[in-house]
Amino acid sequence: MKKPISPNKEVRELKARLAEAEDLLSAIKAGSVDAVVTDDHRVFTLKGADYGYRVLFETIIEGAATLSFDGTIMYCNRQLAKMLGSSPEKIIGSSILDSVRPAERAKFEKLLTVSKTKTMRAEFRLKKRSGKLIPVLVSSSSLELETKGLCVVITDLSEQKKIENELRKYRTHLEGLVKKRTKKLAASEKRLIAVNEELAAANEELSAINEELSSTNEELRVETDERMRSEKTLRESEERMRQALQVSHSFTFEWHPETDRVVRSGSCESILKLSGEEATHDTGDNYFRRIHPSDRAAFVKMLKAMTPAASSYTVEYRVVLGDGSVAVLEEYGRASFDGTGRLDRLVGVTTDITERKRLEEELKKYSETLEERVHLRSKELVVERQRLFNVLETLPVYVILLDKDHRVPFANKFFRDRFGESRGKRCYEYLFNKTAECENCETYKVMKTKAPHHWEWAGPDGRNYDIYDFPFKDTDGTEMIMEMGIDITEQKCAVNELVDTKIELERASRLSDIGVLAATVAHELRNPLAAIQIAAHNIKRKTKDPNLNKYLANIEKKVGESDQIINNLLFYSRLKPPRYESIKIFDMIEECADALKRHEHKEVKVIRKLEPIKDIVIEADPVQIREVFNNILNNAHDAAPVENGEIRIITENDGEFIRVAIEDNGSGIASDIIDKIFDPFFTTKAKGTGLGLSVCRQIISMHEGEIGVKHGFTNGTSIIVRLPKKERKKERINSL
Predict the structure, then answer these.
(1) Domains 21-156 and 249-352 fall in the same CATH topology
(2) Domain boundaries 488-574, corresponding CATH code
(3) Long-range contacts from 443-447, C-beta under 8 angstroms, 24+ separation
(4) Which of 71, 255, 351, 597 has the least CB density, counted as fewest CB within 10 Å?
(5) pLDDT of residue 685
(6) Architecture of 395-487 per CATH?
(7) Architecture of domain 575-736 in this structure
(8) DSSP string covering 589-625, please?
(9) Tell me: the pLDDT tens digits for 658-680?
């Protein structure tokens, strides 16, 4: 069961909701709210969403409003507010039914109900704020936008009713004249009968009178028909005139100079900002004083210059209105003169062209501004076009246009410099010297798919291009292809180098990890080996047994070999950055080559070609470089055959580098393992540690040099070392 709501709390909530509703209503009346969103998420737009329609409503001469289905005014223009003698702020939010006579309220409510499904029109008499009733024509139709309601247009029929009354009076006057004439004719007929009775004997005279009477009757019939046609034409003309005056914002006038009396139609009230008799009945002198002083003299001069031969005129002049503002009027008039040639009557139509003049002036200014902007824009377009052309000409990529016939109507400088001028030839003709188009042409796939296409092309100039093709329409609508090619040759090389560098970094990381492991293992093995060697030495000193001494000697030998392996491991793990000194590389290689003579078990011939580097001094770490060449030469010595073994040392002076190749005539290295010989712990020797060449590679890399391997003379192996002469930053060396 829900907890009951406190009466005080409910009162406070109702007051808050009432205050919120009053604030919303005030904002709506003030025009400061664009839309209202209800609790059920319906949006009622008030201003911003239909601003264009409001501007239209505010400029029409009829009253206009949007109503809810119950008659509440959601919006109205100022013409309707003026019509009801109030302001939009006071009217908006009230009910239109408040301005309807009680006797017509049921009829008006029915009109609102039927208007939901179809457009309705009806005449009513609305009550102004002052209590005065005005005749109006109400047109109502359904409004289907964000907010459902009715669109109502209210036309003031006061002037129309006034004209209709005048027409009825005029018709009554004409009917009176016809009746009077008919009475006269009836009297004439009676007199004719009396004459016939008196002149019964005078048949010939009676016949003449009868013929004359027949002729008179015929003339009367013709005159009556003519009058009826004139009345119909007059009514139609008056209706057209009324509508024309209403639409064109004009009024008619008639001036009699003799009496100086001016009569104007009722539509002049809204134009001259006058009311009542002051608007419709005036004097010529009073009206002349309303003409703007700057235009008055010319207007009077024009009237005085009129003659029976030149009795019509059209003139524009300014007039001071009843509220003090100034309006521009256009007047068309025609004068009639009496027998003496004096101006007797002046009639015409005057139209308010203030707004038209303002628009013409604005249009003139806008036209001048537009012409100036077009002129400036044309100049800018020429500059922009030239700038675009210059950009295309200076782009480090090629841009071309290709038509359906494979011709190249446009190519920028980059393309022309790379591939030359097309000179009207098709692309496959002057690029590839072909007589037919290429099979499976990637570019012309765009013509079929109508979509951009991206691909890579190896050009006839031996370079690689990243190609982007786009559908393109020329200024005349011709379908073409726009192709942009970016030279990615260097980029691909850089990518390949980046891949090599990544591999090198991974190898370096792996070597570093192996080095840490090697140092740990070497440290853990050296202590037990030292203990074994001391124990063997003590036993050997105490015993005289030859067999035991033989075993002890073998133990000492194996301990020495193990110690050498440990030294290699420590050397590998403790490699430090080079300590650069000036080295005579010729002397160092000679020393390393001479050291090979100490190998007693095998004699190998060493051929030396060291002249190119005889006087060259390089900057390097002498200890590390000596280790490199000793290691390589020892490996070459081990690989050389026992009989006819041969090692060649070939050197070159290669600009900023020296190149040393050490070749042997051994059995060589198998192709499937040649890329692994520099990996740590990889060896093909039965007693090797696999660290020698790995250490060499690290040392050469730290000296910013390069070491490689290839097959030597006969089937042997060639190790090639390139070292910079000077200490330098690392850079890529492309060849050995």
Answers:
(1) yes
(2) 1.10.287.130
(3) 443/402, 443/467, 443/469, 443/481, 443/483, 444/402, 444/406, 444/481, 445/469, 446/470, 446/471, 446/481, 447/404, 447/471, 447/479, 447/481
(4) 597
(5) 65
(6) 2-Layer Sandwich (3.30)
(7) 2-Layer Sandwich (3.30)
(8) HHHHHHHGGG--S---EEEEE-GGGTT-EEEE-HHHH
(9) 999 999 888 878 777 777 777 66
